Amino acid sequence: MANSKYEYVKSFEVEDRLLPCTWVVVRIDGRSFHRFADVHGFEKPNDINALNLMNECAKAVMEDLTDIVFAYGVSDEYSFVIQKASNLYKRRSSKLVSVIVSLFAASYVFNWHTHFPDKKLQYPPAFDGRAVCYPDDSILRDYLSWRQVDCHINNQYNTCLWSLIKAGKSKDCANSELKGTRADFKNEMLFTQFGINYNELPQLFRKGSYIYRKKVQNSTANGTQISRKSSFVVTIDHGDIIGDTFWKEHPYILGAEE
Amino acid sequence: MANSKYEYVKSFEVEDRLLPCTWVVVRIDGRSFHRFADVHGFEKPNDINALNLMNECAKAVMEDLTDIVFAYGVSDEYSFVIQKASNLYKRRSSKLVSVIVSLFAASYVFNWHTHFPDKKLQYPPAFDGRAVCYPDDSILRDYLSWRQVDCHINNQYNTCLWSLIKAGKSKDCANSELKGTRADFKNEMLFTQFGINYNELPQLFRKGSYIYRKKVQNSTANGTQISRKSSFVVTIDHGDIIGDTFWKEHPYILGAEE
Amino acid sequence: MANSKYEYVKSFEVEDRLLPCTWVVVRIDGRSFHRFADVHGFEKPNDINALNLMNECAKAVMEDLTDIVFAYGVSDEYSFVIQKASNLYKRRSSKLVSVIVSLFAASYVFNWHTHFPDKKLQYPPAFDGRAVCYPDDSILRDYLSWRQVDCHINNQYNTCLWSLIKAGKSKDCANSELKGTRADFKNEMLFTQFGINYNELPQLFRKGSYIYRKKVQNSTANGTQISRKSSFVVTIDHGDIIGDTFWKEHPYILGAEE
Amino acid sequence: MANSKYEYVKSFEVEDRLLPCTWVVVRIDGRSFHRFADVHGFEKPNDINALNLMNECAKAVMEDLTDIVFAYGVSDEYSFVIQKASNLYKRRSSKLVSVIVSLFAASYVFNWHTHFPDKKLQYPPAFDGRAVCYPDDSILRDYLSWRQVDCHINNQYNTCLWSLIKAGKSKDCANSELKGTRADFKNEMLFTQFGINYNELPQLFRKGSYIYRKKVQNSTANGTQISRKSSFVVTIDHGDIIGDTFWKEHPYILGAEE
């Protein structure tokens, strides 16, 4: 075969299989999204359309790749949790990352007009991605908590920052005013100066978004017999995922492989 | 800082830095593009609009990431050559692959309507990607030759296959007829049965496409003085890249880092 | 500093940190030990002195590296289990493997004369080694079971093989006679032809050796008061490690890090 | 086969193949050799017997593994250069490192009494090791230069340090006196205070040791005919390997694979 003379170059490919029986998290992040947000006039500190667009793209990824059992998103980042037992793409890191990130980016452009019907997309965005293994459920939960705590800290900070800016402060000035302040000081500032009760802001902003396959019961009546089957519906929601409540109510999410 | 309790999860990220001073090739491939081509009614064996769309996306990637010195594309795949000395994203494999593949995929959707003004994109495509290191110029050249030989073999085969199918054969039947045949047999078949001189088909089909930064001389007349400067223009072309001719005419492409 | 011009070469070192919070098993294997055994006239199928020498070396490794919680050895191989939470050598794979394997090999030569007082060591042996991560206790137990099942299968085979050879068969002939036979056939052959009750052979041969830190109670009488403290003593033993019994009796071995 | 139930654990082994067509350097380093040198009363700053023992072990490694084309040693470290085209152990990093480091360590104990006939080895030493790829000859040469410059800097410093200590200074005091001083100051100090001409010290101390396969011509007279053949003899030498001279005189060392 004519090809064989050059085919040795394939031997330079390095295997990048991820450790079996571990949770794989693929996290993607918008590249230069500060600029992207500016160019497209995103609302500050949170643009609800931009967040909904992110959520729709993540949902599309989950609907396509059924080994993803959970996803968590905030701002311009999204984390996808692939189940421990998955052998998708033989667990090759580059395959998993590239398929997810490209599907997400393509969906972003594809769905843009639904969320921004009056705004033209100026240029195609890019995202970076990486895959990380977590050996057990509790560490995976810590990973997700890490992202949600981050969401809270950033959102509280940005809510103050943009309140100050909208009230006339320069960005530098607003930043100095906030530097080193604690959570209770910021909440107090929002309430006293701007009449904002932080805890009443939408969960979408304060907690980010998560997506999971919700178990639903389907009852079918057939004469006098009622048969019940359960199915799973990809569902977007917002709320706390640090505490145990959510996970106890949906034990099948992490337990799926057992 | 409240975050610290969970931040230990960052330690599970594994470094994936590629070996310094080696050529890095990021190759991306359409995921399930057989189906994608069917759904969108791509012309067989080659859809010129689809190929031009691929080329436009690859050009956008090269214009964005200036450390890419060369790209070669065929069918639904593209290879991007990052220069040896590059320290882009600290040579982290997942960063390089994810940014390139997501930018490419987003561009594909973004530019779709230019190349298919009358066709609606049915769903966003995905691509997989990988990064491979090649330690020296001659092995890198062998890599590119490998892809171009592959292009030739596949295109010749597909040209025969689709000629037989268009002439009424079933796909299975056409495949059996071609199985195990040699290049000269196929050329003969194309000429005798279908009046096609294979070597006169467009280079775009037979050789694929390459993109490079073409050095151009700019002369500026300023009174009696003429000053010359050279600049580089991202250029798409088609032709042989296996022989030495192209590389001798453009020595600056691979020599850029020396 | 004069050194700096060349120090860039350090950047070619690739990080090889093993995933945190996973059991690390470093397995070492004698290199070309068939020849080594022949040259040194090892008893077949098992040389008790050679096995004891292996055990003493493994014990020395465990006494030196206190993050190793368990070791299992058979023939010319030994597996060392490093506890999940260990950060020894920052979990760098090459460091862990190289220190263990070199300490083992050096100990082998160092302790040779104790076990073979009348035999001169003809040349220094080498061992290869590798590190593998196991994400949870049950997979780690399966790893150890894998090695012990292997020990059993090989030992039963070799006991038959060498009985036949000692009875005058050629090696090839003995191998053909055993090819494809089942466990019960082999046991029967040993009993009927050679009067060997396989299950009464020493555990050292049938089960291999394991080493662990045995918890022992130390009572000290001080007048009328008796104070008890526990300490851990590196202990070599032989027996089943596939079933739960051993692990239930010594729950602190795998639970040590919790 | 009874084994199969557990054999899945093999899938947790991760491939660690080194990039083809690159120089592989395996560097090993004595573990806690400060203590080892103290316990065994090594001469300071250089113990000629200990250095010769290191060299003999490295030579044994090279004689065993013929894909090693060069080795460079200083103090308690040694670097082994495996030729670019080598496929030894399929270029698996852990195999290469473990076999080299264990053979070296075992040889150290094996050959101890030849170099220290009157000193008992108190305990077996260990070495750590790592493998690094270098894509071309000039970077490999820079690596070797890096080690030889390091040898020079350390040796000059230690020669001063131990001269001061032997003259009655405390170690701390001697270190402070040397801190931040330049090469010419140190040479001057050695000459003025201690009558030592640094450049006349043995090359073994100042330049370290290198080992290569020296090409030698063998002439055989057969009647009136003289036939010449060349063979390669593993040879230890000392001298500069930073400049071009050595490499020009022995072009076959790095060129061996072409």
TrEMBL record, chains A, B, C, D:
Q: Which reaction does it catalyse?
A: a 5'-end ribonucleotide-tRNA(His) + GTP + ATP + H2O = a 5'-end phospho-guanosine-ribonucleotide-tRNA(His) + AMP + 2 diphosphate + H(+)
Cofactor binding description: Binds 2 magnesium ions per subunit.
Report the superkingdom from the record: Eukaryota
Membrane-crossing residues?
Answer: 96-113
Binding residue positions for Mg(2+) 2: D29, D76
Tell me which EC number(s) this protein carries: 2.7.7.79
Ranges for the tRNAHis guanylyltransferase catalytic domain?
6-135
GO biological process annotations for this chain's record? Answer: tRNA modification
Report the GO terms under cellular component. nucleoplasm
Pfam families named in the record: Thg1 (PF04446), Thg1C (PF14413)
Q: What class of enzyme is it?
A: transferase
Tell me where in or outside the cell this protein is found. Nucleus
Q: Which residues bind Mg(2+) 1?
A: D29, G30, D76
| Record family assignment | Belongs to the tRNA(His) guanylyltransferase family.
Annotated PANTHER family:
TRNA(HIS) GUANYLYLTRANSFERASE-RELATED
Recorded protein name is: tRNA(His) guanylyltransferase
Q: The organism's lineage?
A: Eukaryota, Viridiplantae, Streptophyta, Embryophyta, Tracheophyta
